[in-house]
Amino acid sequence: MSETTPYDADRARFPRQALARLVLCDHATDVADGAAGLVATGNDPDTGPGGRASQAFQLVELAERALASAVIYERERGSSWTDIAQYLGIGPAAAQERFAAALDDWNTAFEVPYRLDDTGRKRIPQLPTAAYDPVWACGRLDTWAANRLRVSRDERPVSSGLVQAVPEEELPSVTP
Prior knowledge:
Elements: H1 8-12, H2 16-36, H3 51-76, H4 81-88, H5 92-111, E1 114-116, E2 123-125, H6 129-132, H7 134-148
Antiparallel strand pairs: 1-2
């Protein structure tokens, strides 16, 4: 049973491949921001014993989430399990098994966009936020990249490279 969402029209502007790429971009920013938090040393005295190890462990968790998003993106763009496994240093069957749950969740979220919370009253989106609301994600990610990726002269370093289902000239602006 499929339910409508407030962002269906926005999502329809993008093929699933582009939505998967937005999710990967979003998760990559989390990794980058997490890593940046480990660079500065000025607050080390304020961090309790084990605090930096905790931050590094969280970074590994964020990287694992980004990896799962990268695999979903690769599958959406047509990469085979053999192609993906080659870069992971494991066999195709092991790669498929490792990421099967994440891929199943991704596919199911397009069929069942919400689940009810424990009270049964609040609908919770099942798609990652960047895929659920891609226009918002494009604006946020373009701003993030423009502020941090000094080598890029593109005003929309994320959204300008996305494959879109609707031609660019027919789209309203997605800048924040």
